[in-house]
User: Fold this.
Amino acid sequence: MEIRDATAADWPLIWPFLHGICARGETFSYPVDLTEEVGRGYWMLTPPGRTVVAVAGSGAVLGTAKMNPNQMGNAAHVASASFMVDPAHSGRGVGRALCEEALAWAAAAGYRGMQFNAVVASNTPAVRLYRSLGFEVIGTVPEGFRHPRLGYVGLHIMYKSLEP
Assistant:
C-alpha cells in the first residue's frame, strides 16, 4: 500500500465509498444526501490542508484522509484530520496507516497537537484505533449524534499532543 497526495483523478475513485459512508449516516456528521460537488469541496483540500489516498499496487484507492488546521488564527497550531476507508478494504490496516500519515504530517508541519472534533462514540473501531495511537477522549457531547439505528449517541472530542 502506498499513501500519496490525492489528485483530481482520484476523486472518481474516492466518491463512491465516501458517498456510501455518508449516506449510511452512522459515522460522519456530513449530510446523508451529500452531493458530489459539495463532497468534493469538503474532502479535496488545498494548502494548508492536505488530502491523501491509500492506494493498492493495482491502483485501487483503499481509503483517503484529509488533514488541516483544526481552527484558524491563534488556534491554528492544532491539527485535525478525517479518514474514510472503502468498506471493501476495512480491517486491513488502511485506517491505521492513514492516521499515522496524518500524525506524521502534522508533526512535520509543526502542529502541537491533533484534535478530532466529532468521533461518533458508537464507532468503536475508530475509537479503538485512535486510542491505540495515543488519542484520549477529552470530552463527549451527550447525544451529539443522531445514529440511524441506535438513536442519539455521544460525540467524542479526542486529542493527542504532538509535543516531544
